[in-house]
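Q: Convert this sequence to structure tokens.
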Amino acid sequence: MRYWIIGLCYFIGWWAATAAVDVIVINQPTPNQKVVNRQVLAIQYTIIGAQTINPPINALYPSSMDATFHWQQRQTPSTSFNISGLSNLNTDPYPAGIQNQIYTAHWKLPNCHFFARYKPTDWDFTLVFELKYPINPNNLPTQPPIRIPLAIEPVGNDITPKCT
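A:
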């Protein structure tokens, strides 16, 4: 029985060390943040330092990250579209992972004509952050895509033919 408990302790320690840990956190925009057409959106994200987590982890950091603007029809969820927002965002951790590293990027939302066609009352809008990983020979866990829903302010019907 004693050896079984020791084996279980080793297994739990191994599992805790290899369990998925999110190494990237999106600070801005916040989920369901209200935004308007043509707004320059500040995108701020934190790369978590491996040594800042207790106990420290053996993290696999992505080599870069892409942000995609995704919209999905509410009535027909199978109808969705994407446009590339930002590519190859920096995901370098702080040297030796001794502290967190914060990065900021900016992206301009589509104009009012876009939101007049894809009305915020009929569509859901999300920023999707896709992490790009190097070769992973040790099969370390990777972080899934990060989805941040946005609340787009409705566009008035008087915008055609020009936006203000």
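The CA atoms of residues 49 and 99 lie 5 Å apart.
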